[in-house]
Every structure is written in C-alpha cells, then in structure tokens.
Batch of 4 targets.
Target 1
Amino acid sequence: MVSETPNVPGIGDLERILISEERLARRVTELATEISRDYAGRDLVLVSVLKGGIVFLADLIRRMRIPHEIELVGASSYHGGSTPAPSVRITKDVDQNLAGKDVLLIEDIYDSGNTLGVVHELLEIHRPTSLEVCALLRKNKPRRRKLEIKYVGFDIEDAFVVGYGLDFKERYRNIPCIGVLHPSLYQ
Ligand code: IMP
Ligand code: MG
C-alpha cells in the first residue's frame, strides 16, 4: 500500500509508485522545453489520443514556450478472440486538415504500438509537413510493430501501470503519479 497522497481516490490500490508526481513534473517540463526549441518558428499541432493522453497533454501545453494548436483523436482497441493483435478502431478524427502542419503525436504509453501505429497511419493521410511521436512512457518489451519515438518521457519495465491519465477499467486516471496496481486487483 502507498500513502504518499492518502486522500487521492484509488491510490491505496497501488502496490508501488513507479514515477512520483515530482519526477513527472520535472520530465514534462524538460520535454516541453525540448519540443519548444525544436519546433520554434514552425506550425505545430499537438495531437493527443483519448482518453489516456489528456493529462500529459494538459501539463505539457502549459509548459510549452512556443505557439501551437491541439487536436484530439479517439481510438479504442479490443482483443477479438484468437487473433494475436487487437484491432484498433478510430472513434474520433481530428477537427482540421493537417496538411502543411508540423504534427507531434502525444501519447501516454508506447505499449504494443498497435494504437500508435493506427493513429500514425490516420495522420499520415493528411500529408503533414512532418509527423513525429512523443510518448510519456515506453515499455521495455519486444514488438511486432516498431515505431520511431522522437521524444520519450520514461523507459519503464513491462508492467501494467495506472495514474496520470492511464486507467484500469476506466479508473485511476486521476492519480497524480504513475504506479503499479496491486496484483490482487487483477485476480
Ligand atoms: P498499445 O498496446 O500500444 O496499442 O496500447 C493501447 C492502449 O492501451 C494505450 O494507448 C493505453 O491507453 C493502454 N495501455 C497500454 N499499456 C497500459 C498500461 O500499462 N496501463 C494502462 N493502460 C495501458
Ligand atoms: Mg485504457
């Protein structure tokens, strides 16, 4: 049990904290500074994926030092029976044409890469000037589908994590740090 912030709903279900609120804040500031420097003078659009990416996006944009726009994409992935990879369905497209824009895809986590791969393909159709990916977390695991991630917040172990936008059955997105759920909650 974790008691760093005892009044936060769900925090007692964490087995351990992987990344504290302070480390997250420091790293998000570093990423925003780096992105602001790299994209200075360009027509930047940050595209995040619902719902997990919104907490990261909200913190990141408040630390950006250059003008930019935001867009949201909806994607849901589900395991359909015996197929090895889940199918990913786009549930919401961006609200503008991204042709001629510098697009940076903002994701909570690079896990199997299926979701990122499908959203990446969707954005490529727009023919943006550039298309790169920023993932707050990257799990250390083998992948069938590899994608180059230009900005990575943290490389983490291959564990199921929640908090800072990430959920288990739609809960725990509110937790301000990132932690590993107590295994008894899966069984
Ligand atoms: P993918 O396997 O890379 O396609 O990831 C699909 C989605 O599953 C991600 O965008 C996350 O929203 C979610 N996801 C993947 N790994 C975790 C995790 O450890 N905790 C919570 N959600 C996760
Ligand atoms: Mg989820």
Target 2
Amino acid sequence: MNQTLARKAGLVSRRGGFVLALALTAAGHAAPTTAADSIAVSVDPSKAGPKIDRNLFGQFAEHLGHGVYEGVWVGPDSAIPNTRGIRNDVVAALRALKVPNVRWPGGCFADEYHWRKGVSPQRAVTLNPNWGGVTEPNAFGTHEFMDFMAQIGSEAYVSVNVGSGTPQEAAEWLEYLTAAQPTTLAKERAANGHPAPYKVAYLGIGNESWDCGGNMTPEHYLSQLKAYSRFVRNFNPAQQPDPQRMLKIAVGPGGDGPRWTEWTDTVMKAWQGRSWSWDFDGLSMHNYTVVKWPPSYKSTGFGEAEYAQILESTLEMDRLIATHSAIMDKYDPQKKVALVVDEWGAWYAPLSGSNPGFLVQQNSLRDAVLAALNVNIFARHADRVRMANIAQMVNVLQAMILTDEEKMVLTPTYHVFKMYVPFQDATFVPVSFDAGTYTHGNVTLPRLDAIAARDTAGKLWLAVTNLDPDRSAAVEATLAGITPKSAAGETLTAPRVDSVNTFEAPDTVVPKPIVARVQGATLALTLEPKSVTVISVEQ
Ligand code: AHR
C-alpha cells in the first residue's frame, strides 16, 4: 500500500509515519488493549518448501438446492444479467478469486447423474432424490458447465457416475467431451454447439463410494476403479502427455477411525501394486467441520462457546491429513499420489424456513477464520495435499457467494479466498512462532496461526490469523536475511464472531487495509481480535 492509500485509510500519522491504527476494530472502536503482549514470528525465506498448489483453492458446485440453479444458472431468458444463461455477477466475483478448478456435478448427485440427459436440445426432466427430491431440469449440462469454466477461467474437475452408471457410459461422456477426431460422439458435440474438443483437467472416479456412492467395500470399489481408470480416458491425443494429461482421482477416506484408515490402506496398497493398465493421481478425502451429526450448530446467532467449539473441531483437519498421509507414505514414499481434500468446510443446521435438503446456511466471521485455518493446514501439508475443494461454491454449505433472485452478496469466506490469491502456486516458506493459547470454557486453542510464502514473482507474503475473539495480538515478525522496506495488506474482522454479510448489509465483514511498522529488520503488526490478515513485504 502506498502512503496515499494508507492516508485515505487513516493509517498514517500527521508526521507521516505509520501508526498502530490496526488497534482499531472494523467498526472503528478502540480494540481491547489489555493483553497485546508481543508474539515473535520468525520467517525464513531462505528455506523454500513445497509449492502451495493453486488447486488447494478449488471449488465444488453440486446440483443441490440453489447451488447451480439460481446460484450460477438463470437461463438465457432471465431478467438477471447473464451470458448464455450464466449470471454475470457471480462470474465476475469468481473471476476475482482465480478459481483453479471446479468439481461438478456432485457429490452424491454425481452417482445418479446421466450425462446424456443434459446435452440434447430437448432436456429430460429427472429427479434429484439426494437433495430434497426436487425435479432436475438438466438445463445446466455438459456444455453449460464447460461454458461456465471458460467464463470464470477455471479447469473442469468432472466426477463420473460409478454408483449407478457404467464404465461405458463414463467413457462415452469423456469421448463426447474430449475426442478430436470426427467420431459420432464428437460430431454430436459439434452439432450441439462445440466443434472443438473440451479439456477435462481432472476426473473424479466416483464420490463417497463407501456411502451415498454405492456403499461399497474398499475391495469392491477397487474393482470399479480399475475398470474406470482403464477405460475412461481423455481421448484427445494433444492432451495426453504431461502437463496436459487428465489427472484421475480415486475415492479415499471420509474421516477418522479404522473404517477410513483401512480404506486408504487398501486402495494405496493396490496402487503400489498397479500394472500398466490402471493408475490414479489423487486420492480424495472428505472432512466437514460439523462436530456432530446431524448438523446442529447454528450458522448465525451463536456465541463464543460455539465459536471455540467449531474452531477446535476444524483444527482436526491437521491430524486427519497426517494420519492418511502416513498411510500413503508407506506405499508412495515419493508422494506421486496427491491427497485431494475435495469436500471440506463447515456444515451447520439448515437455516430456518429453508428446505433442509438444500443445505442453506449463513456464513460468518467464524467461517472466515475457519477457512484461513484450513488453508494454512493444507499449505503446511503441501507436499502431499495438492488439491482441495471447499463445499460449496454458491448458496450451499460454506459458500463463497449467496444469491436471492437478482441480489448477490459475498461471504466472509469469499474474502479470505480473495486475500489468499497470492498464495496460489507460491512456494511455502517456513514460519516459527509460539502460538500461545486462547481458552474458552473447556476449549483451548492456539491463539495465533501463520503461514508464509513467496509468490511466483518472488514477493514474500505472510498470512496471520488471530483466533482470540477478545485480545488483539501484537506480532513482531523477523525475516531472516531480509531488511523489509515496507509491508502492507488487508485484514478481515467484524464486531462479533457471528457477524455476517446480508443483502441489506453486505459490508459488515469485509477486508480493510493494514500497514505494518518497519523497525529495522522487524515488522510490527497489531492484529485485531478474531481476524485474518494477509500482508506482502517490499524489500
Ligand atoms: O456437499 C454435500 C454432500 O456431502 C456431498 O454431496 C457428498 O459427497 C457429501 O456427503
């Protein structure tokens, strides 16, 4: 941030020096100053870690509630501004996130999806038994999804139907999508408006095949996986060598405990003994922050107890990744197979008055903190975790965006994803700090979390989350071997842990500028309580 911008934001003193304006809350009130004891953070940019794959910031769009219909697709005849039926406001918001990939069409929906119903000029109306039993118009099908990918500048992660489909059905879908030669299916694609082959970057072979995807044993799933892996190809020769190659993702674990470790062990052991005729590149893992089933925590109108309990639960992600990574290491010490956390996020009780099958929830400052903590965990495991998809993109679960007819609002989680854009494909840089503790009732959490990275242009970035909702945190960051000239960025907080953005008040939880004080080789920052901060360093 330059001095003019900083002055506008009220961050520059009359004498021109940077002030600790960060001790102001988002609402402009003085933050509690009592316990701003200093926390030392050491960043060592000389020690480069793994790449933080941009795919860690992937999204998930299932045919579920208003996630696709209304959230993305309004149809070309809608009064809501759209391009070929896809809403322009949502596209613009997602473009700003540089969404690397979108998983579609499910979820549980994928294992009941039959692609042919969504490509012909006359679309079949079917049912969506998983999600409210509503009708599925199939108006948003293959071409509409690929158009959506082109409009937001993202890659397709297509989940094929293993539960109620066949390898033949899935292979024909991929031929329809990717064949460059004039096969009958490629000609049908051309007749339906797209002569050029599409690119499918990622292929999901089933979804939760241990449960909604067919309740299979790991052995039964493996026999399916081998057939799908062999026959469901990218048929375009130009997209077969690296780095164009379509990556295949197998169904992996859905949680903690022997059932899931056995699943990972069985599938990875088979992978180690694979033959030339089948393979996969990623193992999926699903883990929601829910505390207990059925989801009963409220997404708004909650207090500090629920804030602390949900964050405690979300931090379990680290142990889960470590557990399954350790099993993968046994069979794949070179880490060729990625752990793909392709469903994660908070799952709360449905909003009152909404269809419970539509998984509608609000999104609060707590979710912003939760998102930052999870992304930090993924980054710390970036050597193994190379893809993740938050559930879900629009109007469902921990969404980026909420819509209501022509209205749209960006959620606190959206803002965290936007603040973290510079971490996409950045190189992990080790950070050490004494996190301290934040305690509420019988929950004790780290008070602070932080990651650092160098972006593709070489700039250093630091992301720091202050979990404590009551105490600001004075951070003193030293950057080994670097004398910073300045450091600035954005910070996200709000008056309450359950503050939300609404259509009427969309700016309650939005990022504000923040500037660090440079003290020799040290950067000094005062982080507001319950805040997420991302800064870059000029050197
Ligand atoms: O995201 C909602 C559902 O959660 C998905 O359809 C399913 O895969 C998971 O159980």
Target 3
Amino acid sequence: MYLTLDLGTTMKILLTEDELRRGIERIAGEIREYYQGRPLTIVAVLKGSVVLMSDLIRLLDMPLRIEIVRASSYRDSTRPGELKLKLDMLPSELKDREVLLVDDIFDTGYTLAEVLSQLARRHPAGLRSAVLLRKEGRCEVDVEPDFVGFDIPDRFVVGYGLDYQEMYRNLPHVAYLETEDL
Ligand code: IMP
Ligand code: MG
C-alpha cells in the first residue's frame, strides 16, 4: 500500500501493526526466557526507541527499571554523521544490574557499539542489546544485537519511533520512504 503523507513523501508499508506486534511478542518471549525472572534494567536510546520501549516493557513481567540515554547522529538526510551521546541521565553505577540496551534500528552499528562500550564502563552484571530492526549487509562493527525483531533490506525506513528529519515517529507501522524523497 502506498501512502502520501504531510511532507509530500511517498511511503510503502514494510511492517504492519500486526506484524510489529507479533515480532515484539517474539523478542519479549526471548528476553523473558533469557532473564528467567531476574531483575532487569532497560536502557532506552532516545528518541527512536520510545515506541518499542513502551510496547516491549508491558510484555515483560520481571522486576524492571528504565534508564535513558540520548543518541543523535546528525545525519544531513539519511547518511550517518557524527554521533553525539548524552549519558547524563544514567546512574553512574550499574553494578550488579542486568542491563538491556534497547534501540530502534541497527544500521552500521556504530551507535549500538558506542553506547554498549559506555555502559560497559559502569560495570553492569550483564549487558545485552535488543533492536527492532537490523538492516541487512550494513554492519561495520564487531558487535551484533542479541535480540532482533526484524531483518530488513537496506532502505530508509520511518515509523514506530523512526524518523526522517524528526517526522513520522508516530506512524503505527514501519514504512519505506521512497528514495526520490530523500
Ligand atoms: P547506526 O549507528 O548506523 O547503526 O545508526 C543507528 C541510528 O541511525 C538509529 O538509532 C537511527 O536513529 C538512525 N537510522 C539508521 N537507519 C535509519 C532508517 O532507515 N530510518 C531512520 N533512522 C535510521
Ligand atoms: Mg534517528
């Protein structure tokens, strides 16, 4: 289905609300299975992971804390730029905590790798990562996320938290933005 939205861009739906829900139920199952009821600290990467976060945590039944970090890569359009991290909301110690980093998408992997290395310095008892989407054939780092919702082709996507120039995060599905719009 093609949709034309407010910025005059054309989109094709990649993952419907139903598909997203089933994918998130599956990762939630894997996360519950892995942690076996142990207390968990989720670290959400703002802003892209807010929608995933709110759906995911309601499917997790272990004792759970939420922390946040902010990452922005100052892409001029869709190309990666310099990564900026804001970690000041994070507790200085994550000792004895099982930490699960949650982000929207794993593209080149630089964001996830950098946030993971910053978190590792705070000595968590365990450190894993979960992403909604992973783009095929793009990884440039030697870490991979532990829990992945969907592997997707290398195309620019928006919705369900993901933005294009700060717009479209509120779409309930994930859609491709047609390349002539980028
Ligand atoms: P990475 O550091 O290259 O893995 O990029 C990760 C970050 O870039 C994500 O957290 C997103 O904010 C952004 N990003 C990468 N690909 C897309 C996309 O297709 N749509 C929207 N944002 C993206
Ligand atoms: Mg972004």
Target 4
Amino acid sequence: MLIRRTRGWEIAESKATPEAVMLGRRAMLGGAALAAAAVAGPAQAQLSELFGPSRPPNAMRALSPLSAARNAKYEAGRAITEERQATTYNNYYEFGLSKSVYGAAQALVVEPWTIEIGGMVAKPRKIGFDDLMKQMALEERVYRHRCVETWAMTVPWVGFPLAKLVELCAPTASAKYVTFTTLADKKTMPGLGQRFYPWPYLEGLTLQEATNELAFMVVGMYGKTLPSQNGAPLRVALPWKYGFKSAKSIVKIEFTDKRPTSFWEALQDEEYGFWANVNPKVPHPRWSQATETLLGSDERVPTQIWNGYGEFVAGMYSDKSGEKLFM
Ligand code: MTE
C-alpha cells in the first residue's frame, strides 16, 4: 500500500525514487511485479503526481448536520482525533494516491445514490440511499481506526449496525460471505486511469463478521453527513481490522457462499490478506505493526491486538487457527 510521506515521522519526498527512474522501472516491470511496485512505499510520490494531487481542489461539498445519541458501550479509550485531521488525511485511491485527496474527492456525486443488493438473497433489488436511511435508527460510536500503513485515528462515526443492513437484505441460508463493491466512475475518479489496480474497489467479510455487533455502516462523522473523501454517502467501519477492509462509497452489496477476493488481495495477496485483523506481533512484510502514529501527533504508541476490540471479536476466530488471520 502506498504511503505518501508528508509528516515529521515519515521520510522526506526527496528520498523517494525520482519519477523518471520510477517510470523507467515501470516500463521494465510487468504483471505481478508492477503490482508490487505499485504498493511499494518509495514509489509513492512519483505515482501520485500522475493524477490527483496536482489538480486544483474543488470547492468543498456542503455537509448537513446529522446528530445521533452516542452509544457509550464503545468507548475508544483515547482522545477523539481533530476533525480537520480525519478529513484531510485520507486514503481514497479512486481519487489519487496522495493523502490529500480531499479536494479531488469533492467531484464525487452523492445524490442520487442507489445501492444494489444481490447474490444469494431472497429478493435481489436496488434501494435508494434516502430510502435506506428512513429504515435505520442512527447512533454515534467513537471507534479507533488503524490503517495498515501504521497511522491511526479515533472518530465519532454516525451510522447503524451492519447486522441491520444484512437483515434488510435477507441473505439465503447458504450465503456465507458479504461483499461490498464501491463506486468506480471514470468521469469523476482520476485514479481509475491507473489500470494495474483491479478496480472496482471490493471488500468482503464472513457473514459472522458482518453481523458482529462492532461492524458498523457509516453515514456520517463529527455530527454531520459523511464528507466525500471519507466515503460518502455510505461506508463500513470495522475497527478490529486494518482500515482497507472498510470500503467507502458502497454501491453494491452481494451475498455469496465463496470467499471473495478483495481489491488489495488481488493486487498483492502476500501483503494484504482476506482477514486483515490488527496484530502488533505480525509485521507487514515491509514494515512493523508494533506501533502506530495517531493523526495530529508525532508520537508512536503501541498497537493493540484486534486494535483493542478482542472482547467483541476474538471469539469469532477461535476455530480458524489454520487461517492467516492477521494479514
Ligand atoms: N475504499 C475505497 N473505495 N477506496 C480506498 O482507497 N481506502 C481504504 C479504506 N476504504 C479505500 C477505501 C483504506 S486503505 C483506509 S485506511 C480507509 O479507507 C481510510 O479511511 P479514511 O480516509 O476515512 O481515514
């Protein structure tokens, strides 16, 4: 996964591979090797300049107030990240490889928004976002979020349990997994021009995980509707897993009996597995996961197993010891 180094604890861009070198390297590489280069940190600055960040930022889309009572059961145990940090330091590859995609992401068209429900369900159908909102009771949950790149934040999300959405979709008895496909719109998303990425962005969970009480469908943050760069109008929050599992701007929800191959897994399965549960003791092949940096701070703090949510989720994996649960 690319990491744009812009903070004090990261290497300077001047130390990154020069663009010409990178482009030359790309010309020599093919297939999987090119995919590996695409997820290699030092290449980030050059690839990011190919699209996205150099475009002038679009005007910020207006957000609406979206208040909901906080569910005190899910205390994060650390300070909430400043809103400005959580909304200006993002991963949204469809809009660019930079962390500063918030300007480009304003091109996202969020109205009207329709979600397709399909696969192994009683009745495949489409549901409008507004219609969905009418059927769900909103709550606020403060969750820790841990990116596989070792940055972390603590966010007051507004949304509803994913289990409620699964219930609404009514999967058949033989369905075992749910997949989330996210918007891929070439007209507004410059990242889709990077053809070695296996667009659209797709993520999946077991139905057991999706109906775990922590799995949360997010429609807002900081008491407002979700900003485009954070995955408007609808994304997932799975606080015990690395952040790439939390798909943004979801347009399709499908149920299946076969384990789906996610976007990052398709690109580099050695580095980004299906389970991707947080564990400080299992390093990423290219960096340690022992500590993390909270957005807005330069200090590194210890990473917690399951990102600190073991009491809610560890039991789901007790019969899966043969699986690569942590990457
Ligand atoms: N969803 C889509 N569609 N595209 C992405 O690039 N990035 C993922 C995840 N969901 C991503 C995505 C990653 S790597 C992380 S860490 C989180 O979104 C970041 O969420 P944030 O930008 O709201 O902090």
